[in-house]
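User: My collaborator sent over this chain with a note saying "see what the structure looks like." That's all I know about it. Can you take a look?
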Amino acid sequence: MNRRLFVASSISAALAGCAPVSNALNNSAPVHNALGIAGNLNHLVIGTRGLAKLYPDSAITLDYPTNGNSTPSDATYQRLVQNRFADYRLPVDGLVDHPQTFDLRQLRALATLRETTRHDCVEGWSVVGKWTGVPLGAFLKLVRPKPSARYVVFHSFDRDQDGTPFYGSIDLHQAAHPQTQLALDLNGRPLDPGHGAPVRLWIPTQLGYKSTKWVHRIELVDSFKHIGGGSGGYWEDNGYEWYAGI
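Assistant: Without extra context I'll predict from the sequence alone. Here is the result:
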């Protein structure tokens, strides 16, 4: 392994893979500076070539934890749950030449990616699941991003106890990774509400908090400074790293 990549991965693991983010290590400015450099290095060195390990079906975690927040209490989301997401629509807009809205039938017709990969949580645990969904890179080509588009923002139905909406983002480079997908199924079944139904982001090359659940809109932007707290995601606005490569 390239020594610089090894150092970058090791620093990332020390901060994000082995303990909750509220610990003293996470609050250390020097470590955050080092991790920022490491994240950029991993991003540049690995790019779209580094692939997450694939696992046999025998390794699948049958009791896959939900983790994170409770199912959204949003009234619109609850209505969708009651009608089994028959009325769900996913708009894709922003800096695109051809904004579109997709229903679940259309998304399922595009769901060509099925891989068994590991979910690494920032709290230090890991599980393995078989994810089926739409390859994000190919999906975004349908809306034709404008040359000025740099980031893909995933808006969630969920809100915290103060009413602050959840969202996440990745750049177009990460979106083009062949294992990044809009997930529809987990372990051979449609996602249930606890796991992010009906559509969630799944990025096996990054820590779990980057895989936004309950996606209701995808927006392409040139900057995320005007969204939420301006750090690129709900968790990032609360101190997590924007790039969480593993």
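A starting point for your reply to your collaborator: Residues 152 and 170 are 5 Å apart (CA to CA).
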